[in-house]
Specification:
The complex is a heterodimer of chains A (about 260) and B (about 100).
Chain A lengths: L7 H26 L8 H29 L5 H6 L19 H22 L5 H29 L3 H18 L7 H8 L10 H14 L23 H14 L6
Helix pairs in contact in A: 1-2, 1-4, 1-7, 2-5, 4-5, 4-6, 4-8, 5-6, 5-8
Chain B lengths: L8 E7 L6 E8 L3 H12 L7 E6 L11 H5 L23
The chains are: A mainly alpha (about 260), B alpha+beta (about 100).
């Protein structure tokens, strides 16, 4: 613990703020990892795996940091593999099934766009560790945005079949985007402590980066719906349990194993 | 490309450090130049192998015919005088 850290409840909020960012990277990394060996072509198989590994690398740093903030002896492995579903604070968007290649690309772009919007203000964080992680991650995220944008445009503005698939991915995923920008008391505490931005302030940067891509891809935004997902509150979709079962089974079957 | 279902092939050249030459690293399939660069980045520089990448459509490379190898290259075999080491330098010429 460093002397700059707030105590008590503030520290718990701080930890949860970091944990949300960590869990987003971890769960999306796990989902993208499912593509390993199943990519549409060898080159893209490697590209998606690279993105997954970047995300898991971010998650390791962020989980380690969250564990230190919590100060109850939980390391990255304990946080990744020994928490139960309701303790995960990732937005629902990243836990949804991969679907087809179009859906996987668009989902990854949506989340990468959110990360990109987040890393910039995090560079000014009073949490120096978090600022350093943001600095390292934003180069990775910038490439993820570029690579996935290329696919979204090519498939959206491609054949009838690829356009229909990308549009249907957009219709499915877009309602889950809302949650990325709904702030709560954890965001409020982070703003007050100078740790990071509230998520509603990220929407403008996200729109500015992604709406032109969707337009170039000749996709139409679906209308607004009252639906709001709640993964960041620990209330997840029916898909999360299966994801965690697969991700955690090895570590839980062999406690303390190293490899 | 004759087969419309196949993406064209691109040859990948990677420069490992500033000041060095781009060297042929391999090839990738990609639908266009932008993605060919990204594919090359992901396939051939994931272990920090490079600081610069070129991609060239493979069908734009004109290659010598292996069948011409004898006519193309064998005549150089006995032209030892084309190597600087063939010549004895006078003592006065230092550090050549």
């Amino acid at each position: 613990m460093t002397s700059t850290q707030p105590a008590g409840a503030l520290c718990a909020d701080h930890m949860r703020y970091v944990l949300r960012i960590a869990d987003g990277s971890l769960i999306l990394g796990q989902r993208l990892g499912e593509w390993c060996g199943h990519g549409p072509v060898l080159e893209e198989d490697i590209a998606l795996t690279n993105v997954a590994l970047d995300l898991i690398g971010q998650a390791r740093l962020l989980l380690t940091h969250a564990g230190r903030l919590e100060d109850r002896g939980r390391d990255e492995d304990a946080l990744a593999f020994l928490r139960d579903e309701s303790e995960f604070l990732n937005p629902t968007l990243v836990e949804l099934p991969n679907g087809d290649f179009a859906q996987s690309c668009l989902r990854t772009l949506f989340y990468a766009g959110w990360q990109q919007a987040l890393w910039t203000p995090l560079l000014q964080s009073r949490d120096a560790e978090l600022a350093a992680i943001a600095e390292k991650s934003r180069k990775e995220t910038r490439y993820h945005c570029e690579h996935l944008s290329e696919w979204v445009v090519r498939l959206g503005d491609g054949t009838d079949e690829s356009h229909a698939r990308m549009q249907s991915a957009l219709n499915y995923l877009y309602p889950y985007v809302t949650e990325l920008f709904v702030p709560d008391e954890i965001d409020g505490a982070a703003v007050a402590a100078g740790i990071g931005p509230a998520v509603d302030t990220l929407r403008a940067a996200w729109d500015a980066a992604l709406l032109p891509v969707l337009a170039e891809a000749t996709l139409e935004l679906p209308g607004a719906t009252p639906f709001r997902s709640t993964g960041r509150q620990g209330r997840h979709s029916e898909f999360m349990g299966f994801l965690l079962a697969e991700m955690q089974s090895l570590a839980r079957a062999h406690p303390g194993a190293t490899w | 490309m004759n087969n419309r279902n196949e993406w064209p092939l691109w040859e990948v050249f990677v420069r490992s450090r500033n000041g060095l030459d781009h060297k042929h690293a391999g090839s990738v399939h990609a639908p266009d130049a932008t993605l060919a660069l990204q594919m090359a980045r992901d396939v051939y520089t994931r272990r920090q192998e490079g600081v610069s990448i070129w991609v060239v459509p493979s069908d734009q490379i004109t290659a010598s015919d292996p069948g011409d190898k004898a006519a193309f290259f064998d005549p150089m075999e006995d032209k030892v005088y084309r190597h600087p080491t063939f010549y004895e330098l006078p003592e006065e010429v230092n550090h050549m």
